[in-house]
Amino acid sequence: MTAPASLTPEQALTSLAEGNQRYRAGALRHPRRGAARRAEVLPRQAPLAVVVGCSDSRVPPEIVFDLGIGDLFVVRTAGHVLDDAALASVEYALEHLGCRLVLVLGHARCGAIAAALSASAHPGHIQALVASLLGETGSDGQPFGGPAERAERSHVAYTVRRLRALAPVLAPLVASGAVEVRGAYYHLESGQVELLDL
């Protein structure tokens, strides 16, 4: 694999797509997962991409992209809702690790989205998560809602827009073309990661 710092965003996307194809085909290579790789990344990390994803246990990015230790910088929260710590993590990967691609990975049957679409009250901090989702609006100006898959995809689009416009770090990097923020949707049944045109 080419050194991650020298990869363009498109080359990083190609690596992710190739790994997902192997995963879907059951032809996993399980690359860079042994003792030699642990030693290699001991002094420094240089991931090829940042993946902003959901905490859902069915969507582990390193597995669905058939990648190894140090290949991805993963930021996961329920429903890939971004608080200050998550945003700082993305900024760190860009500023200090040289990542040039941020992939927002939504998925089918997301429990956080389902909770937001329900009319129920939720205990503890789950209600704050739901309130965050309900505060979003789609690119068409419509409030969050609708059928689950539409809401899941809308949330990916919202997160991509938010990251692309995030000052002071991301917005200038995106505007200059140094960094790309892309969105994708994971299909639980097939294992396919669908790149979204956002």
Structure description:
The longest helix has 17 residues, at about 10-25. The chain is α/β, with parallel strands linked by helices and about 200 residues long. The chain contains eight helices and five strands; from the N terminus they run ααβαβαβααααββ. About 40% of the residues lie in helices and about 15% in strands. Strand 4 and strand 5 (about 195) form a beta hairpin.
Class by SSE composition: alpha/beta
The count of domains is 1
Percent of residues in beta strands:
15-25%
Q: Which CATH architecture?
A: 3-Layer(aba) Sandwich
Which CATH C-level class is it? Answer: Alpha Beta
Shape: globular
- Residue share in helix: 40-55%
Order of strands, main sheet, comes to: 2-1-3-4-5
Question: What is the terminal separation in angstroms?
Answer: 28 Å
Report the strand count.
5
Low-confidence stretches: none
Instruction: Give me the CATH superfamily.
Output: Carbonic anhydrase
Descriptive key words:
single chain; 198 residues; alpha/beta; Beta-carbonic Anhydrase, Chain A; 8 helices; 5 strands; 40% helix; globular
